[in-house]
């Protein structure tokens, strides 16, 4: 296979209300790619479309949502052309996902061992004994103490940190190529959070996984990711290598996000909050969706939506300020 492992091209997913009168562009014309072994952070406030984008990649959307355009090239093949039964073989085996609430992912009626072993039995046809052996190994891999005992326990007998590790064990059980982690540390306290992030990084390196990390926390992205994609109102407003974007953010929204996080050793600088609220995704403002909150607004921003501009070979921005000089008229 040549080219990126995952190549998303001009992808759009809309939610349509029951009467068909309201359309929410939850994911709007998103293009990005990811190589084997890389980590991509997808960042944005609540409602920016991050989780819908992840569910679109797996084609696991609720009935009201529809992928209206675009391609999802995975290992050189367009997932949009796969049948539902082919997608079932890809989900969990080739592309796996860790959800933010481990209790929502675990069935309280089954033991940990049954739940970790299930994808191994379904996708690889392993017998119960073999699959349970693998499940115990996987618990060890995610650093659960006394795995032989824990494998026989039920989710309610484990701490929140342990449950999140179990969800991680299930996600890597069939050695996927891509792991999507959707706010996986939200329910954990800070110490457990740091341990879990380290575990994810170690698993990624050990299995050469491509990791997509969905978060509202830019501090976590700085620690975890090679690439970052910033979403606002369903659109990708800036993307590129983490170091480059943290050092020279081009989009005013990214600049505002970065000014709102504490930086080590920068005690003089005051943190600033972003004025205003994200737009209602079903009724975004005309022009640039960020314009009501943007400190650098120009006249054209109120009526003309900026296209994606190339800031450097590796960095893009959807802002008129990044347009070639003769295209900018405020
Ligand atoms: Fe601000 Fe205009 Fe750029 Fe939008 S296009 S981010 S309103 S300067």
Number of β-strand runs: 12
Distinct small molecules bound, one entry per kind: iron/sulfur cluster
Please estimate the helix content. Answer: 25-40%
What value does the Rg take, in angstroms?
Answer: 21 Å
CA-based shape: globular
What is the string of SSEs from the N terminus onward?
Answer: EEEHEEHEHHHHHEHEHEEHHEE
How are the strands of the biggest sheet laid out side by side?
Answer: 6-7-8-3-9-10-12-11
Uncertain runs with pLDDT below 50, 5 residues or more? none
The fraction of residues assigned to DSSP E strands is 15-25%
Description:
The longest helix is centred in the middle third of the chain and has 18 residues, at 190-207. With 330 residues, the protein is an alpha/beta fold. The protein is built from 11 helices and 12 strands. Helix 5 (128-141) packs across helix 7. Bound molecules: iron/sulfur cluster. Iron/sulfur cluster (SF4) binds at residues 251-252, 288, 290-291, 294, 296-298, 301, 306, 319-321. Residues 251-252, 288, 290-291, 294, 296-298, 301, 306, 319-321 line the site of iron/sulfur cluster.
Q: Brief description of this entry?
A:
The protein is of the alpha/beta class. The chain is 31% helix and 22% strand. It has helices spanning 50-57, 84-90, 102-105, 112-124, 128-141, 147-150, 160-172, 190-207, 218-224, 242-247, 252-259; strands at residues 6-16, 23-34, 39-43, 65-74, 77-78, 95-98, 178-182, 210-215, 227-232, 235-241, 309-310, 316-317.
């Amino acid at each position: 296979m040549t080219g990126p492992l995952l190549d998303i091209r001009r992808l759009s997913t809309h939610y349509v209300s029951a009467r068909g009168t309201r359309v929410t562009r939850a994911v709007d014309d998103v293009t990005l790619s990811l190589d084997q072994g890389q980590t991509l952070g997808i960042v944005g406030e609540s409602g920016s479309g991050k989780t819908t984008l992840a569910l679109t990649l797996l084609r696991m959307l609720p009935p009201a949502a529809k992928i209206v355009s675009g391609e999802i090239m995975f290992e050189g093949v367009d997932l949009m052309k796969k049948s539902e039964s082919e997608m079932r073989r890809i989900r969990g085996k080739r592309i796996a996902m860790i959800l933010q609430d481990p209790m929502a992912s675990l069935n309280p009626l089954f033991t940990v061992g049954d739940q970790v072993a299930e994808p191994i039995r379904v996708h690889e046809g392993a017998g119960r004994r073999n699959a349970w052996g693998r499940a115990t190994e996987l618990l060890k891999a995610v650093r659960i103490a006394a795995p032989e005992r824990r494998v026989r326990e039920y989710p309610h007998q484990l701490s929140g940190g342990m449950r999140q590790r179990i969800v991680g064990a299930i996600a890597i059980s069939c050695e996927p190529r891509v792991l999507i982690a959707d706010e996986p540390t939200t329910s954990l306290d800070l110490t457990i959070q740091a341990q879990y992030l380290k575990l994810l990084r170690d698993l990624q390196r050990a299995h050469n996984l491509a990791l997509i990390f969905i978060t509202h926390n830019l501090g976590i992205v700085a620690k975890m990711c090679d690439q970052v994609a910033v979403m606002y109102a369903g659109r990708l407003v800036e993307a590129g290598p983490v170091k480059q974007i943290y050092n020279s953010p081009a989009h005013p929204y990214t600049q505002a996000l970065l000014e709102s996080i504490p930086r080590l050793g920068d005690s003089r600088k005051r943190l600033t909050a972003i004025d205003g609220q994200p737009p209602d995704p079903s009724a975004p403002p005309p022009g640039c969706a960020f314009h009501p909150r943007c400190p650098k607004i120009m006249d054209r921003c109120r009526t003309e939506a900026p296209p994606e501009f190339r800031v450097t070979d590796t960095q893009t921005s959807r802002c008129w300020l990044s347009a070639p000089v003769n295209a900018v008229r405020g």
